[in-house]
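Feature request disguised as a bug report, sorry. It would help if multi-protein outputs had a clear separator. Right now it looks like this:
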Amino acid sequence: MSVKDYIRERFFPHMWCPGCGHGVVLNAMIRAVESLGMSKNEIVMVSGIGCSARISGYVDFHSMHTIHGRALAFATGIKMSRPELNVIVPMGDGDALAIGGNHFLHAARRNIEMTAIVMNNRIYGMTGGQFSPLSGYAAAASTAPYGNIDHGFDIAKLSEAAGATFVARTTTYHVHELSRLIRDAILHEGFSVLEVLTQCPTYFGRYNRAGDAPEMMETYKNRTVAVGSEKKNQDPELIERGVFVKKELPEYCREYEKVIEKNQQKQT
């Protein structure tokens, strides 16, 4: 199959603002799926509400556009009922770690096999540029005109602490790395979290004088380093990219099947 076979061309052009990084994520994800040679019928995409959630409308997979913050809950139900399917859950700041934070923690704790792609643009883009749990201290937003006083989550550390067995981070500048990490996350047999630093020039860039899309992506190039780089020791403010966690633990659906088998044996 070609890349075009995985998209719904009739819904293009997309609704994202000029310069938004979400289209880059869509491109990289489609290329990752294409490299795996996966059938469209093998994939289910589940999304919630927000700019990032609109990705589910552009892919020609089985897809479900659900309610705000509950994408992982719906995805869990799908995976439990059809464990043979590959479930991909694209989320933004709110879906993943604000209203959806509780579901995120427990999906990681259970180690249910699905791929959570967290598009971190550090702001709520669809509803007017409010600050989010990922905005970070001192960031400006429509609801923080004098600077945000909340400290942001570190998605990688939070995911690892909650029990995710694959945790990685990259940016929309590093497109080849992004596609490779999406591929690795899909292949992992457990709960996979991939944080993608993605630009929102319309709100975050404007409120924080971070420039337009090319300037924001240039920042990703200059202010991120590979995991384990010596540059991180020299400048602790640099953000690490790459795989932080990759380990094997019992996967939830497989363990649940064992429980069913034990019960059936007991009854016979």
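(second protein starts here, but nothing in the output says so)
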Amino acid sequence: MGSKERILRQKEETRSNILIAAREIVKEEGWQGLSMRKIADKIEYTAPIIYEYFSNKEAILQELTCKGFGILTKDLEAAKAESDDPAVQLEGMWLAYWNFALKNKEMYQLMYGVEMTCCAQRNTETDAPYTLIANVIAKLMDQENPKPEVIKQKYFTFFSVIHGLISINIVGNGLSDEINKQILKDAISGIVRYIKE
């Protein structure tokens, strides 16, 4: 490996370490505890080095938001691939969405603005979960070429219920896991029946 490749690899590793350190700090202290100084201390660099990779804290937050949407999209794609039935796909995808949110609470907070300012700027990555789910909703609807605004309304019916339940669990103590899963399954199956009508 030449010196140019080694330098590029080291830069990528440092960039990755900055993002890992930021997530670790947030898990320990919450988003309000994140600062460029703390990231620098955690990876044992000086703060000016961090600024070589990210212009400010918001740039780090934006990068983490994009990574979060990338992970969520992969989870949704995997859930969708488990069945050819759109109703089963929707249930699996929303359960994957739920699992992502509870497994990655801090990331979800950042992506969707739960108890903090949302950092997502619309782009292909942030739109990917909507696009995946909306396409399945369109298949489930019993009509040819459903109007985009109708699909969007159905999507946000799902989203508002599931996001609301997730937010309750992130912000407060929430309900037991068993009750949450039952509410989630009841909501998903009810909305699926509503869409099929």
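Even a blank line would do. Unrelated, but nice: The mean pLDDT is 88.
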